[in-house]
């Protein structure tokens, strides 16, 4: 995926107005009828038509006329809306290289006015799997707003809320700076994902620190659910930072033990294979019980299933229990199905891991945007996002 800052710089206030109109329409339409876009944007003298053409040219919108004439945002269009809001808030002033690409996110460097470099994570929940999941398990059928846009926003909100709460409880996580739409801004972690590390000075200490983290999380009532060498960063001093929280669940979750075991197993397996560690390890905590299995390997059991969940902190960040339920439904469907790529329709939203294009590696580019209005529609024109009479 290309994040062409040059295009972003050339977009006008009207471009953002129409982009925002499509976003608003997507609250209750997967494809927003053209007529509704015109009505929400309400540009004078048929100006919307010209703007739509420009947005299509830059792949910020997708045109769909299969059922009726309409538009939806592309990831890029959604990215631009989030980036513009962040820039207007003064969170950062420039966008740099892409530093990570996950199955369901893209990570870029961004810079503050004083030159501090931060990390921007753009969530792409459903990039690979949403269409596949949707076609198999249609638990989303009653709510047209449960689309990738909604899920990506939820994932970002959850990640931001958890990062903040974990930081407040002294966990080694990035500093959560801000969140808008599907975008999370956090401090840039020095170091590398553990998966890239071939040698460690003190593998036992690192291992114990990492297992200690899984256990401490459980004591706080949480399971990471994707705790592995890809989501643990390590620096030259062998200091650990954990990242990537959208899939975390509470220890009271019905599959908690399975998720917990899987996290622990991933770490054991990695250290066994990569650093030839053989383990003698015990933990003494309120929340976990350590025993040995038939082969003498330590096993952990969650015993206190309602350890203090960080409910209050999470709610303070705007992430509700209902949000948690919604996102869990999606993530569980995802795990169950183990990500089949079968439903790929080859549209312009599809991104391949190898797609880290040159364009994104030109160094930090400053963002002098054309206008500095918040990317919501201003109050001087009527805005209506009612169900349209058109079929949808
Ligand atoms: P995903 O959910 O797609 O797996 P991650 O949060 O794990 O996304 O990020 C993907 C990659 O991006 C990481 O493996 C890491 O290399 C890089 N990354 C993510 N967050 C940061 C950060 N705050 N600082 C530096 N690199 C990061
Ligand atoms: Mg990850």
The largest sheet is: 6 strands, antiparallel
Order of helices and strands: HHEHHEEHEEEHHEEEHEEEEHEEHHE
Mass-distribution shape: elongated
Q: Compute the number of strand runs.
A: 16
Sheet/helix structural class: alpha+beta
* N- and C-termini, Cα separation: 29 Å
The share of residues in extended strands comes to 15-25%
User: Over all CA atoms, what is the radius of gyration?
Assistant: 23 Å
User: In order across it, which strands form the biggest sheet?
Assistant: 7-8-6-5-4-16
CATH level 1 name of the domain at 191-330: Mainly Alpha
- Uncertain residue ranges: 129-145, 335-362, 371-392
Q: Provide the CATH topology of the domain at 191-330.
A: Transferase(Phosphotransferase), domain 1
What fraction, in percent, of the residue positions are helical? 25-40%
Bound molecules: adenosine-5'-diphosphate, magnesium ion
Please tell me the overall pLDDT: 78
* CATH architectural grouping of the domain at 191-330: Orthogonal Bundle
CATH superfamily of the domain at 191-330: Transferase(Phosphotransferase) domain 1
* H/I helix tally: 11
